[in-house]
Amino acid sequence: MKPTEKQIIKRPFIEALLCGLTGGAVFSWIGLPLAWMLGPLTAVILWSLLTKRTLYWPKSFKNGGQVLLGYGMGLSFTAESARQITGQLPSMTVVTVLMIAGGLGLAMLASKLTGINIPTAVMGTTPGGLSQMTMLSEEIRGADPTVVTFMQTIRMLSVTFMVPMLSTYAFSEGAATGAGFSSVGTGAVGPLQVITAVGAVFAVTVFALRLRFPTPWILGPLIAAAILTVSGFGPPGLPPILTVLAQLLLGVYLGISIRPDMLKDWKRLLPFSLVTGLLLVAFALLLAYILHRIHPMSLATAFLCIAPGGLPEMGVTAQEIRADVSMVAAYQLFRVLFILFIVPIFLRIIFGRQDAVKNMAESI
Fold it and tell me: How many CB atoms lie under 10 A from the CB of residue 228?
């Protein structure tokens, strides 16, 4: 009798869950930052490398973690933070362009030292989200999605580990008065408030999915919670256990998404991918110091605003060290939108012209 599909995935799922719980517990016991995200991520990667087994984690779990994270981030928005964010739109544009320019500079260096073509190098070093840059690389002529995925994965891992460590141990004191996630409500929470909040999150998330917003499972709940908070409705806060659950769900998923066999010549690209990640973080730290001097925000908040990580990772870090979550979310979201809607236009124009010139030369 052949095993059913549920039986086939049951053991890999249980292994993934146990790895996540064990990694989170160990990191929490040691006292490391983002214990319930970095712990499961590390445990899953190590288990996969040591056992060569393929683990399973439902995509719905990842989406659920993003919903919780997005809702918690949206609770940090206020009318005052909205005004501050609007006033910092020029700064968002400048630092985003500078970070992308820094990535382009590293891409040129990567192309020369590793021999990979320029489109692949550009997509691999651009400080965007892993999934977004991988999908975008499939639309850019000349880019190798496999190499891009590997380079972006290494960058994501290096940033995911380095930024929380720096933010926690070097800058957390300056961020102690920031606005973290709400873990309790703004007052007595009744059934009507809970139903209204759930309905708003559901409606806005469905809207974001249908319009194909970037990271809709985060953006939808974030927008819904922000609207409710700014309007004075007073949505219910997230209990700390749900914040831990969100980190666990995302951490295990990130660990499973790392495939050691994704690239045959990974040993050649690994050192340079690590170095580029380190250089991007160092450049972000420099820009963060300048932003910190210009605007009334802590260095930790400025660093998380600019750090070349993803919205979920930087949002959780901001929560952990009590940085200004709304400002971090605004900067990170602005960069995601800029990279998704503006950068592809320039990449298609640049690499399209190069292909045209090459075809013209070959036809002569």
Answer: 22
